[in-house]
């Protein structure tokens, strides 16, 4: 609003100054000639309000809003692959599975141990009613059941770690893994990126920091897509200005 009013004032002041100047010139010339003063032609411009659009141009980095490298958490042999480069997957889809026979067997053993511990605890609790067993014996069996339950949970997690699922919907990247390959824990099998929403990061010079606000519009273009214009809005502002570049990092 301040900029709009300033433009109007400057235009009006310039027009008035010109009019006074020309009137003075015409008046002096008529007095010298001793003639009747003639009407002066004055060009007037009506002031108008217009919106001033400030733009800050910067080079930005564009990346997927969600991007991860999918890795194995356990060692094992690949028995199933359900991924292709460029394939769109949904959250929860199984992309790769390792041989989990040993993990399943371990889980069955622990579940049997848990069932036995629960039976012993139930029997001890019945006998406790007539003081056939001590309270300490019952407490030990309660602890044994709790330990067995924790072991069962750990065994379930180990079993689940033999398959790689998509943590979110996205597009699968390149992969060199094939069925039969023996993978160590921590092996990267592929990448997964979202493509429907992107994140753009760029820097704003220090002198413009006071004019930058979350929610402001951002328009971006790329030589890779010359016919497309990408639109978004600022969502995050850094809290510190870089001492080296004197810029503020922002994200859209």
Q: Which CATH first-tier class of the largest domain would you pick?
A: Mainly Beta
Under the CATH scheme, the architecture of the largest domain is: Beta Barrel
Silhouette = elongated
Query: In order across it, which strands form the biggest sheet?
Result: 1-10-14-13
Structural class: alpha+beta
| CATH fold group of the largest domain | OB fold (Dihydrolipoamide Acetyltransferase, E2P)
Gap between N and C termini, in Å? 26 Å
Return the string of H and E elements.
HEEEEEHHEEEEEEEEE
| Percentage beta strand | 25-35%
Q: State the domain count.
A: 3
**Unreliable runs, pLDDT <50, ≥5 residues?**
1-33
Question: Helix amount, in percent?
Answer: 25-40%
**Rg calculated over all Cα atoms:** 38 Å
CATH-level-4 superfamily name of the largest domain: RNA polymerase II/Efflux pump adaptor protein, barrel-sandwich hybrid domain
How many strands, what sense, and barrel or not for the largest sheet? Answer: 4 strands, antiparallel
Average residue-wise pLDDT = 82
Number of helices: 3
Question: What's the β-strand tally?
Answer: 14
GO molecular function, one term: efflux transmembrane transporter activity
Protein name: Efflux transporter periplasmic adaptor subunit
Coiled coil: 100-165
Pfam families: Beta-barrel_RND_2, BSH_RND, HH_MFP_RND
How would you explain this protein's 3D organization?
- The chain is of the alpha+beta class and 252 residues long.
- The chain contains three helices and 14 strands.
- The longest helix is centred in the first third of the chain and has 32 residues.
């Amino acid at each position: 609003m301040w900029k709009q009013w300033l433009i109007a004032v400057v235009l009006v002041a310039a027009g008035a100054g010109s009019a006074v100047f020309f009137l003075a010139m015409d008046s002096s010339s008529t007095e010298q000639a001793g003639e009747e003063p003639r009407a002066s032609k004055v060009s007037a411009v009506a002031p108008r309000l217009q919106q001033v659009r400030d733009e800050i141009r910067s080079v930005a980095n564009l990346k997927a809003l969600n991007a991860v490298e999918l890795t194995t958490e356990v060692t094992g042999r690949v028995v199933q692959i359900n991924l292709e480069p460029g394939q769109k997957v949904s959250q929860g889809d199984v992309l790769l599975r390792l041989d989990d026979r040993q993990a399943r067997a371990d889980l069955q053993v622990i579940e049997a141990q848990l069932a036995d511990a629960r039976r012993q605890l139930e029997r001890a609790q019945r006998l406790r009613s007539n003081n056939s067993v001590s309270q300490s014996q019952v407490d030990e069996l309660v602890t044994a059941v709790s330990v067995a339950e924790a072991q069962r949970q750990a065994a379930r997690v180990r079993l689940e770690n033999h398959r790689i699922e998509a943590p979110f919907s996205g597009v699968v990247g390149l992969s060199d893994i094939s069925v039969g390959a023996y993978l160590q824990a921590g092996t990267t099998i592929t990448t997964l990126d979202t493509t429907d929403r992107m994140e753009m990061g760029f820097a704003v010079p220090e002198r413009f920091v006071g004019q930058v606000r979350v929610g402001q519009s951002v328009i971006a273009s790329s030589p890779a897509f010359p016919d497309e214009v990408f639109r978004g809005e600022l969502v995050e502002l850094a809290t510190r200005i870089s001492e080296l570049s004197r810029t503020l990092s922002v994200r859209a």
